[in-house]
Amino acid sequence: MIFGNETVTLICNISAFRPKQVQVKWLRLSHNQSLQEKEHCSSSECIPLQEAGEDLSDMAVNKPLKHGRLYSTVSCLRIVPTLDDDNREYRCRVQHGKSKPVIKSTTLRVKVRPSYCQITSLPHIPEPGKQLVLCCRTEQFYPRAITLKWFRDELLVEQFTQFGPFQDRGGLYSVWNQIELTVSKNDHKVVYTCRVYHESFTGFKELSYRINLQGMPPEVLWITSDPAQPEVGKECTLNCHMNNFCPDTITVKWLKNNLQVDNGVSSSPSILDTNGRYSLYSFLKLTPTRDDQGSVIKCIVEHSALTSCEERSYRLHLVN
Predict the structure, then answer these.
(1) CA–CA distance, 24 with 155 (Å, rounded to integer)
(2) Distance CA 138, CA 148 (A)
(3) Which of 181, 172, 90 is nearest to 129 (CA)?
C-alpha cells in the first residue's frame, strides 16, 4: 500500500549477467503518455512508443554484487508520492551491452489516511428529553470511496444523514455522517460507535461516544505558586487547575487556615474541549506577611458529579 506524502522505495533487481557494466534508467511517465501507450499496445510484449518521461536516474542508488562469474545489481529509487502520482507509471529501463533494453514498470495506487476522525455532539452535554446529534467527521482522505456505519451498543443504526464526500482544492475528500436521537434516562452509558471503512485502513477505524447523563467529575490538580518560592511582602499568585468535567457549573472556594478568603480570588472562563468537557483555572492573589509563615491555603472544589468536595492544600514556606 502506497501512502501520499510518505517515503516509498521502488526496487529494480537485475541478476545473472556479465560483463559487469549495466545501465539502469528510472523514468516517471506522464499520465497522458501511459494512456497513449495502452491504446497503442495490444500485448505485454509491446514496445513503448517513446522513452520520454522525467528521468529520475540521479535519485537512484545502485548496489552491484558478484556471484561467482556472474553479476547482479539492485537499483533503489526513493520517492515521496503525492496525489498527482496516483495511477502514474514508473519505469526501470535496463540496458546491458548491445542486447535489447529490458523495461519493467509499476503503476502507483496512492492512498491518504484521514487526517481527522472524530465524533462531535450537539449539544455537548446531552439531557434527557432533548435531541442529541452525533456527527462522525472524517476529513482529508483519498481516494473518494468510503463507508461509515453507526452502531448502538453493537446494533446497527439504519437511519443516518450523510454529507459528502466532497473534494477540497488539494484533491482530498471529507465526509460528515450524523445520526439524531431523543435522549431518555435509560440512555445513560449507552455507547454509539462509528466505523469508518476506507482503503487506507486495514479493516476499519472505530470511534466511540458514550452518553453520560450524570456528568463527569473534575480532575483537580495540585496548587502551584507563581513565583515558585513566595516571599514576604511580595505579591504571589496561587492557582488550582480543574479539567475534564461536565456540566460546566462548578464552585471553587479558597481557605486560609480554615477561614474563607474572598479578596484576590478570580477564575478563568470554563473552556470547552472537543470531547464536550470543561477545564478551568482558579487563582488566589496575596501578599504574605511574616505572620503567614506556615499558613495552610486550601482550594475546595464542589461539582454535581462529585460525591464529596475535592480539596487541595498548599503550605506557605516564605523567604526573607
Answers:
(1) 57
(2) 9
(3) 181
> Residue 259: CB partners within 8 Å, gap ≥ 6?
none
DSSP state of 31: H
Residue 238 contacts residue 286 (beta carbons within 8 Å): yes
| C-alpha dihedral, 111 to 158 to 123 to 240, nearest 10° | -60
| 3-class DSSP assignment, residue 47 | coil
Helices (H), ranges, the chain: 31-40
Burial class from Cβ neighbours inside 10 Å (0-12, 13-18, 19+) for residue 69 reads exposed
pLDDT digits (tens, 9 = 90+) for 151-165: 999 999 999 999 999
pTM of the full structure: 0.68
CA dihedral (24, 28, 32, 33) in degrees, to 10, reads 0
* Nearest to 84, CA basis, from 150, 175, 5: 5
How far is residue 66's CA from residue 83's CA, in Å, rounded to a whole number? 39
Count CB neighbours of 75 within 10 A.
21
HSE, side-chain direction, 13 A CA sphere, residue 265: 14
- Of 78, 91, 108, whose CA–CA distance to 52 is shortest? 91
Closest by alpha carbon to 220, among 152, 147, 123, 300?
300
Give the tens place of pLDDT for each residue, 236-289.
Answer: 999 999 999 988 899 999 999 999 999 999 999 999 886 678 999 999 999 999
Can you tell me the distance from the alpha carbon of 7 to that of 57, in angstroms, rounded to the nearest whole number? 17
CB count, 10 Å around CB of 4? 22
How would you label 108-137 residue by residue, b for 16+ Cβ within 10 Å and e otherwise?
bebbbbbeebebbbeebbbeeeeebebbbb
Return d(Cα 268, Cα 74) in angstroms, integer: 63
